[in-house]
Task: structure prediction
Amino acid sequence: MVFGLMMLTCCGCSSTKPDSVASGSVPEFTLAWSEYPSWSVFGVADELGIINGSPGQLGELEKKWNVDIVLKGVDYDTCIQLYGSNAADAVCITNIDILGPAMDRPGVAVLPTSTSVGGDACIAVGVENVEGLKGKVTRGLERSVSQYAFQRILTKRGLNYKEYPFTNMDPGAAATAMQTGDASVGSIMVWNPFVMETLNKVSSSRRLFDSSEIPDEIIDMVVVGRDSLGKEGGARFVRCLLETFYEINRRMDDPASADKTLVAIGAKFSNLQLEDMKQVVSQTRFYKNPDEALALLTSQQFRQTTMPSVVAFSVENQIVSQQPTIEYDGAEAQLSFDLSHLKRLSDGVDP
Result:
């Protein structure tokens, strides 16, 4: 893979002051992101000067690609709303949650950032095993990654998920209720940091199952609106995002900068410290380079099993009113996966 050689040119990014640009002289694109391990990468890149998230200011990679990336760091629901209302060119979002917005605004998935391999979990108090959970209410965010993981894992175990009631509750509220001893909340399906917090604070709680049973199914991604991708500089915007993401991954893999980078990401993800972040990234596996991303997106498992399962869940739970069109290799659809930019980086085509 040639990509690793290209990234060495960015080692000194943080030492260079950002350049100011005249309004309209460089194409401007917005990325909506929320606090999550592989998405907080962009906030860290801003702090390091790799990119500069303020309008009219360019970090090193923005200067290289001649684009101005404006970061909008907000909560996850707002990210989805910004994308759906055309108030953001791109959004950090999961393969499940993008289907609804894509029905009205076609999207192009350009970068898988991570997958949950234990970061989403069913935690219970007073229940010894999954069989004991039957008929008892589990609380979590309906029509979301939580409900998808809950139903999918039960199904993979040969169980009928309809015999395991799932009731809507904000994950933070559900975790707090269990942590404070609310007897009405005996089982929750939540994601990190709520998983770690609950297991650490409630000694009687136990992890019944988690997303490690469905690796490479819950995919965290960057999706660009097809309309934005078609604008002047759209392709350069994507390549700048990709190179930014992989530069932070390179620093995470470098023993000299790994801990410092993890701490920086943790500061933007619930203020977690180093040891907690090491656990988090072991349960939220990053796709650390273009080859890992391509291996996922070209796999028959992803195309013929994962995405059809995600679509079926979305239709059944009325997240979408009808089955969305999904295509690969950049073909036009309501949601398409464009591998061309990843392939260019993997092959060392720069720019």
